[in-house]
Specification:
heterodimer; A: ABC transporter involved in vitamin B12 uptake, BtuC; B: 383 residues; two-stranded antiparallel ribbon
């Protein structure tokens, strides 16, 4: 029982990341009708917003303190981040919380980048065939990757979680089961974070006039346009929103998995499988499939399962995708008429 | 196989053969006339040529073709290990294996079209890639890669009594092919020319026309009473066999097979080559493959020193920012160049280099009357 609960928990945080990326992909596909292969690169950009922010905060002044010496006898170099020097205790706090704080940086950066990308390139591909959309965004993803690689190098850069959340939480006691279920705090936080972002996106689409117009546009953009609404502009904003969602998902994921320049591509391939399993164009399907595949993956990596079917943990997601696509042509929750012949 | 090509096609074929065989001379001024690089042109040319039979003719965008390259390489190396160092059995064996695997994958994946097909092929390729590192390690030797060893059985060679010290080389009846010599290049070149011949035959045959018809309107084909699936499957298997052949040639020129060839970036690369050259044209994909491999070689060899030397004539205040800007695009960062070129090509010239040629020649023919882009070269999706 405990083992099963633990695997579900393990799958949920990864599933949260899949769901967030898949949600953005589906939003873009549902509104603009564009298959965006650069979405993983946006996730990666978000992660590197956190890295960059952390680097900025930890810029250090180096002073030589003659009163202290190193064990080798030479004068000790004292390194102190400027932020700490200027702000004292609150500076230390800021450095400690650099990952969550990087969200504040990531939101404007990703929003602007998303809008620029939509205006600059994606806009010209609305009417082009899907294969060309795939190709141009694929090229764009390479460009983003390589620029990041040039400035941050090719190695993964670990980001610490805030000190308060570094340990493990006894989840069993939290939910009243009494026994341990040790689980890293930060993963728990990531789970709640992704759930709240998903909730916020759904609420935005469901309960605001803006979201209502967007939903109407997903159904029938021409009619909405005829009603005198500038639907293109709204769709541009939706693209920006999707890129913010991918970006903050990347920021918060950095303490779980040290980001490198091709982390986005790895997540993209999986997220596309997630989107297709969930059903192209279905937001609920994307979220559901994201968590489902995350949990399945963590179950498949249990030793008991691997003993029965060796290697299953490596291929489970793709296997599920193949089975789902062959039995349910529209995925789990796909709507009729989306991406069909 | 009848040799009834039209006169134009014979000219095209002979011209192509001539160009390929004289590459060592014609590439001299470009500084690319060494066998190891020209081999790559040929191998990736075959890969792209085969991919084009699927993507260019039917419009089905496969994102998992690298799997066949990997399978072909592994099959060839196993043949070297078990049977003989002669290249022919290895090549035939890997074509058969790749074809069989393509039949299975194609049978499943072709039930869907459009992006679903792309994802399915990607899923299969990723499965192979992941399994090559885990469960299939007895076959693939995991991260080390499959290599020849001294203890290999090599049944046929042993029987012939060819026991020599050291690792044997891949050969074709006594001519050494591996190790980047001219023999290896000419071997690949001849295989490429043969492949090109078959591609012409396929393009001009009723079968090829059927595939084009499937691309433009599947429903109409179905209404006329055709069963589409076998045609698509045949195209998929043929392109899989081409890829397997390319993979086995990689093993022939360098008897080592690693799983990284199967990664999905390699699948992306062949898509890129095909698009760059011009999907749906005969020569385009080969041209695209050669251009990409050439620039990979040239650009990745550049570094800041070479750039400084080139822009030496400029005053320092201009030279330094220029060099630091350009250094983004060369050496390690050559993929950035590739990405930028790729984006530009898809945006401005979806028909690739071949469409560019056609536009230019159109300009000359009509005395600058504006070359109309050829519709046929435009890659339409299968949806």
């Amino acid at each position: 029982m405990d083992a099963i609960l633990l695997q579900i928990l393990n799958g949920l945080d990864k599933g949260g990341a899949y769901a967030l990326i898949a949600l953005g992909l589906t939003l873009v596909f549902g509104t603009l009708g564009v298959v965006n292969f650069a979405h993983g690169a946006l996730f990666m950009m978000g992660a590197f917003c956190a890295v960059g922010f952390n680097k900025l905060l930890t810029l250090q002044s180096v002073t030589i303190d003659p009163s202290q010496t190193t064990p080798w006898g030479s004068p000790m170099e004292v390194r102190q981040p400027y932020v700490e020097a200027w702000l004292g205790e609150s500076g230390k706090f800021l450095v400690d919380y650099s990952v969550p704080a990087a969200i504040l940086l990531a939101i404007p950066v990703m929003l602007l980048f998303g809008i620029a990308m939509e205006r600059g390139i994606i806009r010209h591909f609305y009417k082009r065939p899907h294969s060309e959309q795939i190709l141009v965004t694929f090229g764009l993803a390479i460009v983003i990757q390589e620029i990041i690689k040039h400035y941050f190098g090719a190695n993964p850069i670990p980001q610490p979680a805030p000190a308060a959340f570094r340990g493990t939480a006894a989840v069993g006691e939290l939910i009243g089961l009494g026994n341990g279920l040790p689980y890293p705090w930060w993963r728990l936080i990531y789970l709640f974070f992704s759930l709240s972002i998903i909730g916020a996106v759904f609420a935005f689409l469901r309960f605001t006039t803006y979201g209502m117009v967007v939903r109407a546009g997903m159904r029938d953009r021409e009619t909405v346009g005829l009603l005198g609404i500038n639907i293109e502009r709204r769709f541009t904003v939706v693209f920006g929103l999707a890129s913010v969602v991918a970006g903050v998902a990347g920021v918060m994921y950095t303490p779980i998995l040290p980001p490198d320049y091709h982390i986005g591509m790895e997540f993209l391939v999986l997220s596309f499988v997630v989107v297709v399993v969930g059903g192209m164009g279905s937001l609920g399907g994307a979220v559901l499939a994201g968590f489902l595949l995350g949990i399945l993956q963590s179950f498949a990596s249990m030793n008991e399962v691997k003993a029965i079917i060796p290697g299953i943990d490596q291929i489970i997601i793709y296997l599920v995708a193949v089975v789902v696509l062959l039995t349910l042509p529209r995925g789990l929750m796909g709507r009729a008429g989306v991406m069909e012949e | 196989m009848a040799f009834n090509l039209s006169k134009q096609d014979w000219l095209l074929f002979l011209g192509f053969a001539l160009v390929v065989l004289t590459l060592p001379i014609s590439l001299q001024p470009l500084g690319a006339a060494y066998p190891a690089l020209m081999q790559k042109f040929c191998i990736f040319g075959i890969f792209a040529l085969g991919f084009n039979i699927l993507f260019g003719l039917t419009g089905y965008l496969s994102f998992g073709h690298a799997a066949f390259i990997g399978i072909g390489s592994y099959a060839a190396v196993w043949m070297f290990k078990l049977l003989t160092m002669n290249a022919l059995p290895a090549i035939l064996f890997s074509m058969v294996v790749a074809g069989l695997v393509a039949m299975v994958i194609g049978y499943v994946a072709l039930r869907r079209s459009g992006i679903y097909f792309s994802i399915l092929t990607l899923a299969f390729a990723q499965m192979f890639y992941n399994l090559a590192y885990s469960v299939l390690t007895p076959l693939t030797n995991g991260e080390t890669g499959l290599q020849l060893t001294l203890g290999d059985p090599r049944v046929l060679d042993r029987m012939a009594g060819a026991a020599t010290g050291g690792l044997p080389r891949v050969e074709l009846f006594g001519i050494g092919l591996s190790g980047g010599g001219y023999a290896g290049f000419y071997f690949c070149a001849i295989v490429l020319i043969l492949c090109f011949f078959f591609a012409i035959k396929i393009f001009r045959s009723p079968f090829g026309l059927m595939l084009r018809a499937l691309k433009s309107n599947q429903n109409r084909m179905r209404y006329t009473g055709f069963n589409n699936r076998p045609y698509l499957l045949a195209a998929f298997v043929i392109s899989g066999v081409y890829a397997g052949l390319a993979g086995s040639l990689m093993a022939v020129t360098d008897p080592l097979a690693g799983a990284e060839r199967m990664q999905w970036t390699a699948s992306g690369e062949v898509v890129l080559m095909t698009i760059l050259g011009g999907a749906g044209t005969l020569v385009g994909p080969i041209l695209g493959a050669a251009v990409i491999k050439y620039f990979e070689n040239i650009f990745s060899a550049f570094n800041e020193q070479t750039l400084h030397r080139i822009f030496d004539f400029l005053p320092d205040s201009i030279e330094n920012p220029l060099v630091s800007g350009l250094s983004l695009f060369v050496g390690e960062g050559w993929h950035l160049t590739l990405g930028v070129i790729f984006v530009l090509i898809v945006i401005f010239l979806p028909g690739g280099i071949m469409e560019g040629f056609r536009r230019i020649s159109g300009l000359f023919k009509r005395g600058g009357g504006g070359g109309k882009p050829a519709v046929a070269a435009h890659a339409q999706p299968a949806e």
